[in-house]
Write a structure and sequence with these properties.
mainly alpha
Length: 125
């Protein structure tokens, strides 16, 4: 199991780093972007937001929040076509694999330590 864990981490490490970075940026950019003042429409709007909904206007050009859509497409792999979506999906499967195999390796090491009658601990050297 360690062999597979090690080799797949080398292959998918870059992709997982990409997904983690773009996902983090897509959440941080709207928080750090200064709020732009609302712009009064020059004419009556063609669409009026219903009172139960939260309708937001499109960000103005140059507004950092306009990057959120781009970051989402980069994060999901849509910017790279079907191959990018497939790679992003495989990276999601790889994250599940790394989680489960890492936990499995930890349990195996825990049991081996218990068999040797070593002092129980959550972490060891």
């Amino acid at each position: 199991m360690r062999k597979w864990h090690r080799w797949l981490s080398v292959v998918f490490g870059v992709v997982l780093l990409w997904i983690a970075g773009t996902g983090l940026l897509s959440q941080v950019v709207p928080l750090l972007a200064p709020k732009s003042p609302p712009v009064a429409p020059a004419v009556a709007p063609a669409f009026v937001c219903p009172p139960d909904y939260n309708c937001r206007p499109k960000p103005r050009p140059g507004d950092p929040r306009a990057l959120v859509g781009l970051l989402h497409h980069l994060h999901s792999g849509e910017s790279f076509g079907p191959v990018g979506v497939a790679i992003a999906t495989l990276a999601g499967v790889a994250m599940l694999f790394f989680t489960l195999s890492g936990l499995w390796m930890y349990v195996v090491m825990w049991r081996a330590r218990a068999r040797r009658a070593a002092r129980p601990a959550w972490f060891w050297r």
